[in-house]
Design goal:
about 290 residues, alpha/beta
């Protein structure tokens, strides 16, 4: 009986309080709706976009995070400088301008590039990435923008001995983990050790701790031979031909956005100008 009396008193008090504050059922509903909208807005802000668009997400956060490795002439730093330059770095900045965002470069473990994308620690992989089956199945990729090949690098004084695939069978190779060079070594059943970068594989060959390496032809043009840090290295056998593309998250609309940017930058001559700056103009793929 006491419980009933107390409940009745509390109910009456609540009615009087609501009347005194001028609350109505419609006011209460409006307040609930406002709270719901606030939660939705906060959720949208946290994810970057309520539409699920990667382009909107990047614009909202104000930055395009580019996953790279040290890989001349695509992404690299000159001695004494902290600025990333290269064909890919400069091209990424051009796209960033149209997006209206800052472009930031983050060095990644190449073998973990897909995981880095999915975790949103980076927004794109833009680093002379070969469009392999693994890549195209795991990422939303752009159209090819450069042609490339995987070549064998050996000391110049031994180059005459290694001009065919059969001549390579007894050599020890250094290759970048997760790269097209590693795939080429597997396909040709070569003995190899995986390294963290293509630059590291060249150091191995130069030091004599590996007989040879497999790297990108474009990198070979910039990193070995006369006028480089590896003047006594040269490339011989071309194991594969391939194409470079930019990788985005699976299902992302960013790849289509970059494709449209490629067409514009190719047609207005910007892409060619950047390519000539880094000596890769002959490898350009027409964008249309």
């Amino acid at each position: 009986m006491k419980k009933k009396i107390i409940s009745g008193v509390l109910a009456a008090s609540m009615v009087l309080a609501m009347a005194g504050c001028g609350s109505t059922a419609s006011d209460t509903g409006a307040s609930a709706a406002a709270s719901s909208q606030a939660v939705t807005a906060a959720s949208s802000s946290a994810s970057g976009s309520s539409s699920g668009s990667d382009v909107d997400y990047i614009k909202n956060k104000g930055s395009l995070i580019v996953g790279i490795t040290d890989f001349a002439p695509m992404d690299y730093k000159e001695d004494g400088s902290d600025e990333w330059i290269g064909f890919d770095a400069d091209l990424a900045r051009e796209v960033g301008k149209d997006l209206g965002v800052e472009v930031k470069f983050v060095e990644i473990d190449w073998d973990n590039k897909i995981l880095e994308l999915d975790n949103k620690s980076i927004d794109v992989v833009w680093n002379g990435m070969t469009l392999t089956d693994e890549v195209t199945k795991s990422m939303a990729c752009t159209n090819a923008y450069l042609n490339n090949a995987q070549v064998v690098v050996v000391p110049e004084d031994k180059a005459d001995k290694y001009q065919t695939v059969d001549s390579l069978k007894d050599l020890s190779f250094a290759v970048e983990a997760g790269s097209a060079g590693e795939e080429a070594a597997k396909e040709n059943k070569l003995n190899y050790t995986s390294m963290s970068s293509q630059a590291d594989t060249l150091m191995e060959v130069s030091a004599g701790t590996s007989d040879a390496s497999i790297i990108d032809l474009l990198m070979a043009g910039a990193m070995i031979g006369k006028g480089t840090s590896y003047e006594k290295l040269t490339h011989t056998v071309e194991l594969t031909t391939e194409e470079y593309g930019v990788g985005c998250r699976k299902g992302s609309d960013l790849a289509d956005y970059i494709n449209k940017e490629f067409v514009k930058l190719y047609q207005d001559g910007t892409m060619k100008t950047i390519a000539e700056k880094y000596g890769v103009q002959d490898a350009l793929v027409e964008q249309k």
